[in-house]
Amino acid sequence: MTTTSELLASARATLAGVPKEGLGEERSSRWRGERIVRVGEAWHIGVLLLTDDRTLATAEILRAADLGRRGYTAESARARAARRQLALRGGFDEGDVVHVDWSVIDVDAVDAGGSSGPVASIDGIPQVRWSRSGAYMPLEAYLRERIDLMRDV
Length: 153
What we know:
Layout: H1 4-14, E1 21-29, E2 33-45, E3 48-50, E4 55-57, E5 60-63, H2 75-89, E6 97-100, E7 103-104, H3 107-111, E8 115-116, E9 119-122, E10 125-129, E11 136-138, H4 139-152
Parallel strand pairs: 1-6
Antiparallel strand pairs: 1-2, 2-3, 3-4, 4-7, 5-6, 8-9, 9-10, 10-11
Helix pairs in contact: 1-4
């Protein structure tokens, strides 16, 4: 049987050479104000983010950009534009993909038969839930499909 740790290690090896995306964290200071700063990078594999040594669950995904147009139809569009500008202010280049509010997945807990974030061990088989309302699917097949898509782009 293959463990979650083994599947993720294999995925990392397969992804060598594939570009990563930025991981950001919100920071605030009196002098520099609000911003989203780079704290690392990861491969974005659907609901998972793989760094060289950790597995994370995705949350908010932004593309760093200038605030641009000021006349928004919806307040939510204005708020999202402001968030994109925070990433630009924090040092990301315009157009960079930034992952914010991600959470660490406890791979050891999953290997021990539990769950963490969207990953769980069900009947001893590592599974992933690709959406909150979606069903679980085998992690091995999920990783294979997503990585094939990333490598074909």
